[in-house]
Design goal:
This protein has three helices and six strands. With 117 residues, it is α/β, with parallel strands linked by helices. A hairpin with a 2-residue loop joins strand 5 and strand 6. The longest helix has 13 residues.
Length: 117
């Protein structure tokens, strides 16, 4: 299943169109919300969180800290964060980057929980 969270009504409409075209309606959920509000009110843990925020917004550090604060990522889960090249990966107290892939002017930073000591 997949949960799409976006504060933009237009982005959610595009996601809804694609969900219907691919016939995955039964396993998809659309939520209009800011990520801060979503994390603070959501009780579910996710195995994969993919974030593709507006590039100019600089959300990486806050996003990682919100996931750590609310425990939104499952213990064996991964966070995939898309950002423009040149953004320095943020290391949280619990989440750390373990891989960075570059595609043109875009980088994708992969996070997982640090190993227990």
């Amino acid at each position: 299943s997949c949960c799409f969270v976006d504060s933009s009504r237009e982005s959610l409409k595009i996601a809804e169109t694609n969900i219907k075209k691919t016939r995955v309606d039964a396993n998809s959920k659309l939520i209009k919300s800011d990520f801060r509000e979503f994390f603070s009110t959501n009780a579910k843990k996710y195995d994969i969180i993919f974030a593709d925020p507006p590039y100019a917004a600089g959300f990486l550090e806050e996003f990682v800290l919100q996931i750590e604060r609310y425990g939104t990522l499952s213990q064996d889960g991964i966070l995939i964060f898309e950002a423009p090249c040149g953004i320095e990966p943020f290391e949280g107290e619990k989440l750390a980057p373990y891989r960075i892939a570059t595609y043109g002017k875009t980088q994708v930073i992969f996070y997982k929980y640090r190993e227990s000591e």
